[in-house]
């Protein structure tokens, strides 16, 4: 009695073990702790609730383990141990009053107190043992202290299952024994294993959303490595001040206004749930229909589906008792605004380019293709970074087999990280060793729209301002969106210029080498004499001279790209001028060669595709070497080998040189772009569902009444 | 795995037009001038007609056994052993033809373009091209042929047009050369010039049925007949028949004679490209057909391992002739005169045996 009074008025510093004590937070835990304290009623209830199934027990075991491990809650509890101690004393005081009313209860409380005392004694004894152990052991033990707290109820549950009575002292002894055994085992066998790995091994393998909110939170905390990971926000609250719930989102990826203005206040406001009848309506249905004022809500059950959404900037709402969650659209990360396309500038045509935001890019396309047939499918690709991409195609035009093939390739990617469209392109193209690209990348929405209407499939990736279109042919690489915006004569002229640029860029240096070394007889005499005169002071052989110049040109180009801002362009121009002039004056290269390299460089710039221009640069070097080895014969051989590999290429089943080799029906839209009114059919090799693009004479005003015979226009 | 693949009418015609017509760029017109004088253009038309006649037998055979290649037909009609023996001999023959044609090209290259380079150096580059083309399959060769045929024919027409100032009409006479009878007989015997059309049997499975084979065969013979005849005619117009007999490559000489103004002189290096591409395709087609037959005989499903050893054999065949004289006057002449025995006679015999033994393809039996 005196001791109890003393406890009431004199503060005792709690022991380490007592500091770890905390009050249960939820009903399930209360039952567990009641069992711990030996309350038979709750114990029986617990057994009834837990059911006879073994799985339930296992789950509870796991829960309790989680409770004890790595959770920040425990640390918080440690900090508030003094309060807990006081609360406990108050409770004991209350129970003391109750004891006076009931003898039985009094007896139990006494036994409780005895148990507490014996428990503290035992723990003190253990502490002494721990002090005797070395420091390393102590650290490890402290790390595992939480397990002790949890193992105890587990032992009880297991013991109860066998209906064998056991005292609290026995329980504690048993738990301490197990703790020591575990420590020994861990020291003997798992020296290299850190605690993090243990935690991952013990992590609950939740596949679907659990009814228990606590379980879901624990799963997420463990999955996202909380508290180490500071990005994930788990906001716990009560819906209408009653139902426990939480919002889960990633900091920085969300638009906070959506959560602050349209989610949290609405959910917490009691008045929003006045009409809610739990017996009649499912809470998620009610919230979806009556509470949340957010435009896009999706329900999901599987964590594998939910997690990519959360990391993509959506917010998940988990509610106690619900085995599914609501995913709310709340993306609001920083993004670049729509600007001019950098790599595909045109004079005539739209001046919008894609950005890094997937949604923005799709919107840019939808603004051009305002059709219900434009289908956008989303796919998460890589395993680690959940790379999101959208597959766009026109239903009713695009061949479904092509769409399936694209999806098949995307779904069967087994890679942990994809950085952008460039990497994805390499992963899904037919032949990785082929000299030419098999997928075209564009940053122009209008070009994507024309690809879609042609019957191609387009992939737009998150975080990349380039869309990938497939399948493509060689001739697509010379086309720009400007071609169709200009009259056919101008468009065709530009394409021919581009093709000539391509031929010059590829063959001119090699041909020059071959001419100088092997076929001087082909050069007209007057030109030959001027070449000979200019080459006379040059000490290098022709092939070395041209390779030197090519290398210098490549250096200038690459340097110009890397130097920031306007300086880069200036460096390119000035560098080329000064270097060329200086090289000629120093007698290192001939002036004719400067012209050859400059023309081939300019020709390279006329090619619209950046990948294609890189291909040309590589082929050019090979042709110079072959030209130096065997003249035109060497170039022919190199071209044949190149063509053998190129003609063998296919882009998603379409031969690369279609519609010429193999020959298929096509519009006048290869090198010569015919009048738009004559491009009646879609390309044959794409096997589109709707082959006809327009009427035989699309200009209806030319036909029949009021048509060509109409003199209104005169 | 090297796959034959499928190709269409245009690609098939391109293959055969290039394979047959490219020979006109080498020593063949010279030999024709030696044998029949000024009537080479007529003689080659007779050769084309003879080839069309022989091809009819092969077409009938392929029609009788639809969806079967020549090798499979040989096996069916003659039995496994005899059929495969015949296929093996034909395979060896066309590999030798490929080697001789390649050596002819190399010798002409040495004379005109690469006099300092050893033949083996030119051969190695050539073999690399063959390996690249054959490794990617028949479909790729067909596409390359389709791509190149326009350039070859365009280049040929360009050379002819630029050579018009050198043409003299009187050089065509006497019209029947050394006599009509000699022209007719030589024309019939030299049907081997168009003998490459017989390879249609080896590639039958890659083509779209017997009707397509018929179209491809006759159209190819017709087109190459016209082109070769025109080439002989223009050579006769450009060179007197005595001069023509001394040319190593009349077409190349014709290109060197171009002289329009001070700038457009000597376009022979441009002509060189046509020559190179055409020959690469021709030899590759022969080589590929030989490889297909060889693999059929020995039931080798994956042809890729066979590719390099057969290229080595081809390289060795190339090394056998001593020089241009032996190649042009003996080997090529023999091939052109007696090649029909290997190209067409087996098909005729197999057809006769098939009729006698009442052997037919599956579709015909149904």
Keywords:
A: 714 residues, alpha+beta, five-stranded antiparallel beta sheet, 27 helices, elongated, B: 366 residues, mainly alpha, Amino acid/polyamine transporter I, 16 helices, 72% helix
Plain-language structure description:
The complex is a heterodimer of chains A (714) and B (366). Chain A is an alpha+beta fold and 714 residues long. Chain A has 27 helices and twelve strands. Chain A has helices at residues 2-9, 16-19, 27-37, 40-50, 54-68, 72-79, 81-101, 103-132, 135-143, 145-161, 168-189, 195-202, 213-223, 256-268, 283-291, 303-311, 358-368, 400-411, 421-428, 445-454, 481-485, 488-517, 525-535, 542-562, 565-585, 591-605, 610-647, and strands at 232-239, 243-250, 297-300, 315-319, 325-328, 374-380, 388-394, 440-442, 457-461, 467-470, 650-651, 654-655. In chain A, the strands form three sheets. In chain A, strands 1-2-4-5-3 form a five-stranded antiparallel beta sheet, sandwiched between helices. In chain A, helix 3 (27-37) packs across helix 10 and helix 5 packs antiparallel against helix 10 (145-161). Chain A is elongated and about 115 Å long. Residues 14-25, 32-40, 50-85, 100-112, 132-165 and 190-203 of chain A have low confidence and may be disordered. In chain B, helix 1 (9-21) packs across helix 12, helix 3 (40-64) runs parallel beside helix 8 (180-189) and helix 7 packs antiparallel against helix 12. Chain B has a single domain (9-365), classed as Amino acid/polyamine transporter I. Chain B has a two-stranded antiparallel sheet with strand order 1-2. Classes of the chains: A alpha+beta (714), B mainly alpha (366). Chains A and B meet through helix 27 of A and helix 6, helix 7 and helix 12 of B.
């Amino acid at each position: 009695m005196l001791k109890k009074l003393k406890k009431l008025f004199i503060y005792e510093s709690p022991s380490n073990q007592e500091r770890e004590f905390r009050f249960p937070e939820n009903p399930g835990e209360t039952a567990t702790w009641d069992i711990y304290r030996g309350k038979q009623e709750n114990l029986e209830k617990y057994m009834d609730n837990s059911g006879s199934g073994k799985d339930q027990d296992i789950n509870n075991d796991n829960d309790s383990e989680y409770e004890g491990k790595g959770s920040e809650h425990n640390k918080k509890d440690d900090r508030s141990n003094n309060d807990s101690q006081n609360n406990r004393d108050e409770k004991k005081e209350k129970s003391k009053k109750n004891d006076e009313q009931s003898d039985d209860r009094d007896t139990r409380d006494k036994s409780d107190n005895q148990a507490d005392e014996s428990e503290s004694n035992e723990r003190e004894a253990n502490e002494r043992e721990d002090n005797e152990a070395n420091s390393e052991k102590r650290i490890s033990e402290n790390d595992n202290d939480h397990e002790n707290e949890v193992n105890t109820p587990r032992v009880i549950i297991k013991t109860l299952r066998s209906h064998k009575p056991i005292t609290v002292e026995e329980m504690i002894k048993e738990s301490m024994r197990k703790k020591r055994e575990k420590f020994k085992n861990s020291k003997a066998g798992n020296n290299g294993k850190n605690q993090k790995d243990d935690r991952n091994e013990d992590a609950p393998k939740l596949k679907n959303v659990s009814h228990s909110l606590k379980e879901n939170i624990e799963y997420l905390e463990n999955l996202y490595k909380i508290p180490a990971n500071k990005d994930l926000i788990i906001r716990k609250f009560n819906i209408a001040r009653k139902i426990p719930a939480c919002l889960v989102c990633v900091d920085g990826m969300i638009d906070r206004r959506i959560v602050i203005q349209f989610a949290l206040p609405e959910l917490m406001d009691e008045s929003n749930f006045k009409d809610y009848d739990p017996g009649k309506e499912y809470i998620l249905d009610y919230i979806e229909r009556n509470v949340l004022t957010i435009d896009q809500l999706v329900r999901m059950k599987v964590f594998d589906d939910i997690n990519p959404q959360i990391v993509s900037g959506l917010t998940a709402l988990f509610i106690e008792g619900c085995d599914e969650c609501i995913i709310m659209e709340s993306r609001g990360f920083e993004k670049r605004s729509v600007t001019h396309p950098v790599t595909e500038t045109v004079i005539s045509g739209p001046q919008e380019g894609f950005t890094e935001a997937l949604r923005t890019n799709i919107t840019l396309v939808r603004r051009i293709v305002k059709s219900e047939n434009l289908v956008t499918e989303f796919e998460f690709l890589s395993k680690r970074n959940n790379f999101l991409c959208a597959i766009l195609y026109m239903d009713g035009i695009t061949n479904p087999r092509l769409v399936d093939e694209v999806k098949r390739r995307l779904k069967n990617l087994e890679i942990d990280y994809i950085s952008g469209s460039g990497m994805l392109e390499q992963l899904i193209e037919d032949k990785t060793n082929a000299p030419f690209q098999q997928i075209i990348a564009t940053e122009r929405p209008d070009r994507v729209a024309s690809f879609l209407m042609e019957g191609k499939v387009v992939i737009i990736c998150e975080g990349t301002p380039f869309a990938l279109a497939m399948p493509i042919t060689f001739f697509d690489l010379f086309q720009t969106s400007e071609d169709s915006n200009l009259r056919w004569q101008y468009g065709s002229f530009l394409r021919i210029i581009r093709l000539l640029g391509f031929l010059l860029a590829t063959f001119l240096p090699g041909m020059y080498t071959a001419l100088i070394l092997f076929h001087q007889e082909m050069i007209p005499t007057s030109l030959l004499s001027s070449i000979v005169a200019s080459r006379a002071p040059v000490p290098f052989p022709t092939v070395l001279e041209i390779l030197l110049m090519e290398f210098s040109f490549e250096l200038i180009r690459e340097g110009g790209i890397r130097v920031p801002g306007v300086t880069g362009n200036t460096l390119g121009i000035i560098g080329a001028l000064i270097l060329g002039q200086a090289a000629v004056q120093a007698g290192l290269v001939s002036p004719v060669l400067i012209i050859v390299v400059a023309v081939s460089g300019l020709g390279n710039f006329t090619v619209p595709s950046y990948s294609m221009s890189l291909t040309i640069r590589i082929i050019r070097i090979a042709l110079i070497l072959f030209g130096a080895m065997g003249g035109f014969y060497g170039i022919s051989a190199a071209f044949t080998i190149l063509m053998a590999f190129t003609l063998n290429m296919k882009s998603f089943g379409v031969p690369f040189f279609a519609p010429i080799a193999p020959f298929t029906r096509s519009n006048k839209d290869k090198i010569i772009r015919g009048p738009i009114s004559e491009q009646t059919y879609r390309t044959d090799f794409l096997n589109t569902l709707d082959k006809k693009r327009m009427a035989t004479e699309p200009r209806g005003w030319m036909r029949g009444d009021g048509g060509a015979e109409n003199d209104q226009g005169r | 795995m090297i796959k034959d693949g499928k190709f269409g009418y245009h690609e098939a015609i391109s293959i055969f037009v290039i394979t047959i017509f490219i020979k006109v760029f080498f020593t063949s017109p010279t030999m024709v001038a030696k044998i029949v004088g000024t009537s080479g253009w007529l003689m080659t038309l007779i050769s084309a007609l003879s080839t069309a006649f022989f091809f009819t037998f092969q077409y009938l055979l392929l029609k009788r056994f639809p969806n079967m290649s020549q090798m499979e037909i040989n096996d069916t009609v003659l039995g496994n052993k005899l059929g495969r023996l015949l296929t093996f001999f034909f395979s060896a023959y066309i590999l030798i033809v490929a080697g001789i044609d390649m050596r002819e090209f190399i010798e002409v290259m040495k004379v005109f373009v690469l006099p300092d380079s050893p033949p083996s150096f030119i051969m190695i580059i050539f073999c690399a091209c063959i390996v690249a083309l054959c490794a990617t399959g028949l479909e790729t060769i067909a596409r390359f042929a389709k791509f190149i045929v326009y350039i070859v024919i365009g280049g040929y027409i360009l050379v002819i047009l630029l050579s018009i100032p050198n043409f003299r009409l009187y050089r065509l006479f006497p019209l029947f050369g050394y006599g009509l009878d000699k022209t007719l007989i030589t024309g019939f015997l030299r049907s081997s010039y168009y003998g490459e059309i017989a390879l249609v049997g080896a590639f039958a499975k890659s083509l779209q049925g017997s009707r397509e084979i018929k179209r491809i065969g006759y159209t190819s013979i017709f087109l190459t007949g016209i082109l070769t005849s025109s080439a002989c005619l223009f050579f006769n117009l450009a060179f007197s028949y005595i001069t023509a007999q001394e040319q190593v490559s009349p077409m190349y000489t014709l290109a060197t004679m171009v002289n329009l103004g001070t700038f457009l002189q000597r376009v022979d290096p441009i002509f060189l490209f046509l020559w190179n591409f055409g020959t690469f395709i021709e030899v590759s087609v022969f080589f590929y057909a030989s490889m297909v037959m060889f693999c059929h005989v020995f039931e080798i499903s994956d042809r890729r391992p066979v590719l390099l050893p057969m290229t080595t054999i081809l390289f060795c065949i190339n090394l056998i002739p001593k020089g241009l004289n032996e190649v042009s006057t003996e080997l090529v002449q023999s091939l052109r005169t007696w090649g029909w025995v290997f190209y067409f006679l087996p098909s005729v015999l197999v057809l006769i045996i098939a009729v006698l033994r009442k052997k037919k393809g599956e579709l015909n039996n149904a």
